[in-house]
Design brief:
The chain is α+β, with helices and mostly antiparallel strands and 66 residues long. It has helices at residues 15-22, 26-35, 52-65; strands at residues 12-14, 41-42, 48-51. It is built from 3 helices and 3 strands.
Length: 66
């Protein structure tokens, strides 16, 4: 069983899980992807996936800025 925000075996996170971890709206991550602020990888179905390590790095940076 994979709980919400638990690391995925492949190291990728869905947009919802990434947004929840960062306490952001998923649209913010979509915008960042379009601007090139963060890299989103696409599934064959076209869904965005984010590397968990990238999301963790953003989370740490957000904590430092507080």
């Amino acid at each position: 069983m994979n709980l919400k925000n638990e690391p995925k075996p492949d190291g990728f996170m869905t947009i919802r899980d990434a947004a929840d971890r960062l306490a952001l709206n998923p649209e913010t991550l979509r915008r960042w992807d379009r601007k090139g602020t963060i890299t989103a990888y696409r599934t064959p179905g076209g869904y965005r996936r984010f590397l968990e390590s990238d999301i963790d790095a953003i989370f740490r940076k957000m904590l430092e800025e507080q």
